[in-house]
Design a protein that fits this description.
Blueprint lengths: L1 E9 L5 E10 L4 E5 L6 H6 L9 E6 L2 E2 L5 H4 L3 E4 L11 H6 L8 H5 L5 H13 L4 H4 L8 H12 L6 E5 L7 H17 L3 E5 L3 H7 L2 E6 L2 E6 L6 H9 L18 H7 L1
Parallel strand pairs: 3-8, 3-9, 6-7, 7-8
Antiparallel strand pairs: 1-2, 1-4, 4-5, 9-10
Helix pairs in contact: 5-7, 7-8
Bound molecules: adenosine-5'-triphosphate and magnesium ion.
Length: about 270
Protein backbone atom coordinates (compact mmCIF):
# COMPACT_ATOMS: atom_id res chain seq x y z
CA UNK A 1 0.00 0.00 0.00
CA UNK A 2 1.20 3.47 -0.93
CA UNK A 3 0.06 6.40 1.14
CA UNK A 4 0.39 10.16 0.81
CA UNK A 5 -0.68 11.97 3.98
CA UNK A 6 -1.37 15.72 3.62
CA UNK A 7 1.66 16.17 1.37
CA UNK A 8 2.96 19.56 0.23
CA UNK A 9 5.97 20.29 -1.95
CA UNK A 10 7.40 23.78 -2.12
CA UNK A 11 10.51 24.45 -4.15
CA UNK A 12 13.11 26.97 -2.92
CA UNK A 13 11.89 29.53 -5.48
CA UNK A 14 8.46 29.46 -3.82
CA UNK A 15 6.67 27.27 -6.37
CA UNK A 16 4.01 25.17 -4.66
CA UNK A 17 4.07 22.06 -6.83
CA UNK A 18 1.97 19.83 -4.53
CA UNK A 19 -0.68 21.19 -2.18
CA UNK A 20 -2.22 19.01 0.48
CA UNK A 21 -2.49 15.71 -1.38
CA UNK A 22 -3.72 12.67 0.55
CA UNK A 23 -4.01 9.43 -1.34
CA UNK A 24 -3.86 5.68 -0.82
CA UNK A 25 -3.00 3.27 -3.61
CA UNK A 26 -3.46 -0.45 -2.86
CA UNK A 27 -0.89 -3.03 -3.95
CA UNK A 28 -1.36 -4.08 -7.56
CA UNK A 29 -3.47 -1.13 -8.64
CA UNK A 30 -2.77 0.56 -11.99
CA UNK A 31 -3.34 4.21 -11.16
CA UNK A 32 -3.15 6.75 -13.98
CA UNK A 33 -2.23 10.35 -13.14
CA UNK A 34 -3.66 13.02 -15.44
CA UNK A 35 -3.29 16.78 -15.40
CA UNK A 36 -2.16 19.67 -17.56
CA UNK A 37 1.49 20.54 -18.01
CA UNK A 38 2.97 21.87 -14.78
CA UNK A 39 0.17 20.38 -12.66
CA UNK A 40 2.57 18.46 -10.41
CA UNK A 41 2.42 14.91 -11.86
CA UNK A 42 6.17 14.34 -12.06
CA UNK A 43 6.74 15.92 -8.65
CA UNK A 44 4.16 13.57 -7.14
CA UNK A 45 5.87 10.54 -8.70
CA UNK A 46 9.35 11.68 -7.71
CA UNK A 47 8.36 11.70 -4.06
CA UNK A 48 8.05 7.92 -4.28
CA UNK A 49 11.58 7.19 -5.46
CA UNK A 50 13.17 9.61 -3.03
CA UNK A 51 14.23 12.12 -5.70
CA UNK A 52 11.94 14.76 -4.21
CA UNK A 53 11.10 15.08 -0.50
CA UNK A 54 7.82 16.47 0.78
CA UNK A 55 8.05 19.90 2.40
CA UNK A 56 5.18 18.87 4.68
CA UNK A 57 3.29 15.63 5.22
CA UNK A 58 4.45 12.05 4.79
CA UNK A 59 4.69 9.42 2.09
CA UNK A 60 4.64 5.74 3.11
CA UNK A 61 5.36 2.57 1.19
CA UNK A 62 4.27 -0.65 2.91
CA UNK A 63 3.97 1.23 6.19
CA UNK A 64 7.53 2.63 6.05
CA UNK A 65 8.26 6.32 5.65
CA UNK A 66 9.90 6.95 2.30
CA UNK A 67 11.96 9.92 3.44
CA UNK A 68 13.68 7.69 6.04
CA UNK A 69 15.08 5.47 3.29
CA UNK A 70 18.10 6.02 1.07
CA UNK A 71 17.63 6.32 -2.69
CA UNK A 72 19.73 3.15 -2.99
CA UNK A 73 17.36 1.19 -0.75
CA UNK A 74 14.31 2.59 -2.53
CA UNK A 75 15.69 1.48 -5.89
CA UNK A 76 15.11 -2.11 -4.81
CA UNK A 77 11.41 -1.45 -4.32
CA UNK A 78 10.52 1.37 -6.69
CA UNK A 79 11.40 1.18 -10.39
CA UNK A 80 10.93 3.87 -13.02
CA UNK A 81 10.04 3.83 -16.70
CA UNK A 82 10.92 7.11 -18.41
CA UNK A 83 9.49 9.11 -21.29
CA UNK A 84 12.87 9.13 -23.09
CA UNK A 85 13.59 5.52 -22.08
CA UNK A 86 16.86 6.54 -20.27
CA UNK A 87 18.76 3.56 -21.62
CA UNK A 88 22.46 3.46 -22.50
CA UNK A 89 22.25 3.49 -26.33
CA UNK A 90 25.73 2.07 -27.04
CA UNK A 91 25.27 -0.84 -24.68
CA UNK A 92 23.56 -4.10 -25.61
CA UNK A 93 19.90 -4.78 -24.87
CA UNK A 94 20.98 -7.52 -22.42
CA UNK A 95 23.27 -5.22 -20.42
CA UNK A 96 20.64 -2.49 -20.31
CA UNK A 97 18.12 -4.94 -18.84
CA UNK A 98 20.71 -6.31 -16.41
CA UNK A 99 21.48 -2.79 -15.24
CA UNK A 100 18.06 -2.90 -13.58
CA UNK A 101 19.67 -5.27 -11.03
CA UNK A 102 22.52 -2.87 -10.15
CA UNK A 103 21.20 -2.26 -6.61
CA UNK A 104 21.99 -5.90 -5.80
CA UNK A 105 25.26 -6.41 -7.70
CA UNK A 106 28.65 -5.10 -6.48
CA UNK A 107 29.86 -2.20 -8.65
CA UNK A 108 33.09 -3.93 -9.68
CA UNK A 109 31.22 -7.00 -10.94
CA UNK A 110 28.69 -4.91 -12.86
CA UNK A 111 31.52 -2.80 -14.32
CA UNK A 112 33.04 -5.96 -15.77
CA UNK A 113 29.67 -7.21 -16.98
CA UNK A 114 29.86 -10.09 -14.46
CA UNK A 115 26.23 -10.65 -13.62
CA UNK A 116 25.26 -13.95 -11.94
CA UNK A 117 23.61 -16.62 -14.10
CA UNK A 118 20.35 -16.28 -12.17
CA UNK A 119 20.11 -12.59 -13.16
CA UNK A 120 21.00 -13.35 -16.78
CA UNK A 121 18.24 -15.92 -16.90
CA UNK A 122 15.83 -13.45 -15.36
CA UNK A 123 16.79 -10.81 -17.95
CA UNK A 124 16.10 -13.31 -20.76
CA UNK A 125 12.77 -14.25 -19.21
CA UNK A 126 11.76 -10.56 -18.96
CA UNK A 127 12.87 -9.84 -22.53
CA UNK A 128 10.63 -12.68 -23.63
CA UNK A 129 7.74 -11.31 -21.55
CA UNK A 130 8.06 -7.88 -23.18
CA UNK A 131 8.05 -9.43 -26.65
CA UNK A 132 11.69 -9.05 -27.67
CA UNK A 133 13.29 -12.01 -29.42
CA UNK A 134 16.69 -13.66 -28.77
CA UNK A 135 18.08 -11.83 -31.80
CA UNK A 136 17.53 -8.51 -30.03
CA UNK A 137 19.50 -9.50 -26.93
CA UNK A 138 23.00 -8.68 -28.16
CA UNK A 139 22.01 -5.72 -30.32
CA UNK A 140 22.87 -2.20 -29.27
CA UNK A 141 19.88 -0.32 -27.93
CA UNK A 142 20.54 2.47 -30.47
CA UNK A 143 19.62 -0.02 -33.21
CA UNK A 144 16.07 -0.47 -31.87
CA UNK A 145 12.92 1.52 -32.58
CA UNK A 146 11.44 3.75 -29.88
CA UNK A 147 8.75 1.22 -29.05
CA UNK A 148 11.31 -1.57 -28.76
CA UNK A 149 13.49 0.64 -26.56
CA UNK A 150 10.59 1.22 -24.21
CA UNK A 151 10.11 -2.57 -24.03
CA UNK A 152 13.74 -2.79 -22.91
CA UNK A 153 13.01 -0.08 -20.32
CA UNK A 154 10.06 -2.08 -19.02
CA UNK A 155 12.08 -5.31 -18.82
CA UNK A 156 14.79 -3.41 -16.91
CA UNK A 157 12.22 -1.99 -14.50
CA UNK A 158 11.05 -5.48 -13.48
CA UNK A 159 14.54 -6.87 -12.76
CA UNK A 160 14.24 -6.11 -9.03
CA UNK A 161 10.62 -7.31 -8.67
CA UNK A 162 9.60 -3.80 -7.62
CA UNK A 163 6.61 -3.23 -5.36
CA UNK A 164 5.98 0.02 -7.24
CA UNK A 165 6.56 1.10 -10.80
CA UNK A 166 6.59 4.78 -11.69
CA UNK A 167 5.93 5.51 -15.35
CA UNK A 168 6.25 9.21 -16.10
CA UNK A 169 4.67 9.75 -19.52
CA UNK A 170 6.00 6.41 -20.79
CA UNK A 171 4.37 6.79 -24.22
CA UNK A 172 4.83 10.51 -24.86
CA UNK A 173 7.50 9.86 -27.51
CA UNK A 174 5.61 7.09 -29.31
CA UNK A 175 2.93 6.98 -32.00
CA UNK A 176 -0.65 6.05 -31.00
CA UNK A 177 -0.51 2.41 -32.10
CA UNK A 178 2.81 1.73 -30.36
CA UNK A 179 1.58 3.64 -27.29
CA UNK A 180 -1.34 1.28 -26.84
CA UNK A 181 0.96 -1.73 -27.18
CA UNK A 182 3.29 -0.34 -24.51
CA UNK A 183 0.45 0.41 -22.09
CA UNK A 184 -1.04 -3.06 -22.68
CA UNK A 185 2.35 -4.50 -21.84
CA UNK A 186 2.77 -2.36 -18.71
CA UNK A 187 -0.70 -3.34 -17.56
CA UNK A 188 -0.10 -7.05 -18.14
CA UNK A 189 3.32 -7.02 -16.49
CA UNK A 190 2.05 -5.17 -13.43
CA UNK A 191 -0.83 -7.67 -13.07
CA UNK A 192 1.46 -10.67 -13.44
CA UNK A 193 4.03 -9.32 -10.99
CA UNK A 194 1.51 -7.72 -8.57
CA UNK A 195 3.21 -4.35 -8.98
CA UNK A 196 1.52 -1.08 -8.09
CA UNK A 197 1.78 1.38 -10.99
CA UNK A 198 1.58 5.14 -10.96
CA UNK A 199 1.56 6.18 -14.60
CA UNK A 200 1.28 9.79 -15.74
CA UNK A 201 -0.33 10.32 -19.13
CA UNK A 202 -1.57 13.18 -21.29
CA UNK A 203 -4.19 11.09 -23.12
CA UNK A 204 -7.54 10.69 -21.29
CA UNK A 205 -8.61 7.92 -23.72
CA UNK A 206 -5.60 5.81 -22.82
CA UNK A 207 -6.17 6.59 -19.14
CA UNK A 208 -9.73 5.25 -19.39
CA UNK A 209 -8.62 2.19 -21.27
CA UNK A 210 -5.74 1.10 -19.04
CA UNK A 211 -6.28 2.66 -15.62
CA UNK A 212 -7.91 0.68 -12.79
CA UNK A 213 -8.23 4.10 -11.26
CA UNK A 214 -7.63 7.63 -12.52
CA UNK A 215 -6.54 10.58 -10.46
CA UNK A 216 -6.04 14.10 -11.78
CA UNK A 217 -4.00 16.94 -10.37
CA UNK A 218 -4.20 20.59 -11.23
CA UNK A 219 -2.07 23.33 -9.71
CA UNK A 220 -0.73 20.79 -7.24
CA UNK A 221 -4.13 19.70 -5.95
CA UNK A 222 -5.97 16.43 -6.31
CA UNK A 223 -9.02 17.44 -8.34
CA UNK A 224 -10.36 14.07 -9.49
CA UNK A 225 -10.18 10.56 -8.14
CA UNK A 226 -12.40 7.97 -9.73
CA UNK A 227 -12.95 4.92 -11.87
CA UNK A 228 -12.30 5.16 -15.62
CA UNK A 229 -16.00 5.41 -16.44
CA UNK A 230 -16.30 8.41 -14.11
CA UNK A 231 -13.78 10.36 -16.19
CA UNK A 232 -16.37 11.83 -18.53
CA UNK A 233 -15.61 14.15 -21.45
CA UNK A 234 -16.99 16.99 -19.33
CA UNK A 235 -14.51 16.28 -16.52
CA UNK A 236 -11.67 16.19 -19.09
CA UNK A 237 -12.82 19.44 -20.65
CA UNK A 238 -12.82 21.10 -17.24
CA UNK A 239 -9.48 19.60 -16.30
CA UNK A 240 -7.65 20.84 -19.37
CA UNK A 241 -9.62 23.94 -20.35
CA UNK A 242 -11.63 25.01 -17.32
CA UNK A 243 -10.96 25.56 -13.68
CA UNK A 244 -11.61 22.11 -12.27
CA UNK A 245 -12.07 22.59 -8.57
CA UNK A 246 -8.99 24.78 -8.09
CA UNK A 247 -10.42 26.30 -4.97
CA UNK A 248 -11.14 23.12 -3.11
CA UNK A 249 -9.05 20.31 -1.77
CA UNK A 250 -11.79 17.75 -2.21
CA UNK A 251 -11.76 15.58 -5.34
CA UNK A 252 -14.72 16.16 -7.64
CA UNK A 253 -15.48 12.45 -7.64
CA UNK A 254 -15.36 10.39 -4.46
CA UNK A 255 -12.58 7.86 -4.01
CA UNK A 256 -13.91 4.63 -5.52
CA UNK A 257 -14.60 1.46 -3.58
CA UNK A 258 -11.53 -0.71 -4.04
CA UNK A 259 -11.87 -4.27 -5.26
CA UNK A 260 -11.76 -6.68 -2.29
CA UNK A 261 -8.91 -8.67 -3.81
CA UNK A 262 -6.81 -5.53 -4.19
CA UNK A 263 -7.46 -4.63 -0.58
CA UNK A 264 -6.42 -8.11 0.47
CA UNK A 265 -3.28 -8.00 -1.65
CA UNK A 266 -2.41 -4.70 0.02
CA UNK A 267 -2.68 -6.14 3.51
N1 LIG B 1 13.20 21.86 -9.28
C1 LIG B 1 12.19 22.72 -9.38
N2 LIG B 1 12.29 23.98 -8.92
C2 LIG B 1 11.25 24.86 -9.01
N3 LIG B 1 10.05 24.54 -9.55
C3 LIG B 1 9.90 23.30 -10.03
C4 LIG B 1 10.94 22.32 -9.98
N4 LIG B 1 10.48 21.17 -10.55
C5 LIG B 1 9.21 21.43 -10.92
N5 LIG B 1 8.87 22.70 -10.61
C6 LIG B 1 7.57 23.34 -10.84
O1 LIG B 1 6.60 22.57 -10.15
C7 LIG B 1 5.39 22.55 -10.91
C8 LIG B 1 5.01 21.12 -11.20
O2 LIG B 1 5.96 20.58 -12.09
P1 LIG B 1 5.88 19.06 -12.61
O3 LIG B 1 7.12 18.81 -13.38
O4 LIG B 1 5.60 18.18 -11.46
O5 LIG B 1 4.61 19.14 -13.56
P2 LIG B 1 4.01 18.02 -14.54
O6 LIG B 1 2.57 17.87 -14.20
O7 LIG B 1 4.85 16.80 -14.50
O8 LIG B 1 4.12 18.72 -15.97
P3 LIG B 1 4.40 18.07 -17.44
O9 LIG B 1 3.09 17.47 -17.89
O10 LIG B 1 4.77 19.25 -18.28
O11 LIG B 1 5.49 17.05 -17.30
C9 LIG B 1 5.64 23.39 -12.15
O12 LIG B 1 5.19 24.70 -11.89
C10 LIG B 1 7.15 23.36 -12.29
O13 LIG B 1 7.61 24.51 -12.95
MG1 LIG C 1 6.03 15.80 -15.86
Amino acid sequence: MLRFDSVYKRFPDGTEAIRNISLQVPRGQFCVVLGPSGAGKSTLLRMLNGLSKPSEGSVYLGGELICDQSVQRLRKKVATVHQQFNLTPRMSVALNVLSGALPQVPHWRAGLGLFPASLREKACQLLDEVGLTPEHVSRRVSELSGGQQQRVGIARAFMMDPAVLLADEPVASLDPRISRGILELLHRQSRNHNTTVLCSLHQPDLAREFGDRIIAVNQGRLVFDGKPEQLTDKVCEELYHGALNHDHNKPVVAVPEFEPELEMAAA
